[in-house]
Amino acid sequence: MELTDRQTLPVAQDLAWAALNDTDLLARCIPGCESITPNADGGHDVAITAAVGPVKAKFKGKLRLSDVNPPESYQLHFEAQGGAAGHGKGSAQVRLEPAGPAETVLHYSAKASVGGKLAQVGSRLVDMAAQKMAREFFERFGAELAARHPAPVAAEAPPPASEHPRLGLFARLLRAVRRWFGGTA
Question: Does this model's pTM top 0.70?
């Protein structure tokens, strides 16, 4: 299975990088994630419940980062065992690109393989499940980022004097006074 896409995140690159390395935030955003905990190897142990077609199981796995280049990119390696449901392993390349003061484009490319019952359900179902999980993750992740770092509200410009009721009245009175006393309006 291969999955390549990009997502626009509503925060600056440094905030996006920090969020991608916040395991509590990631655990809330990954569909079916029960836990992400650091392990002695410098990686993380993960517990996720996932369904692929008729196969639903709890997977226990390991995540490890390599080629870490803050705040721009890293390589993510993963492997998981789901008992009788099967197993999976793969990697993903993640790259952040600034798109303005409050936007970052996240590019990712993932490759994975599955075995056991997961492989028997067919690559089309596996691909659809992976796409659904990615979509749900980025919806949650974007919402979490927007809640943590709301976009600044642009101040509204006051309406022109002729449109503002009080200023419009004042301008009309000023013109009338000038006409009455010989000035130009």
Answer: yes
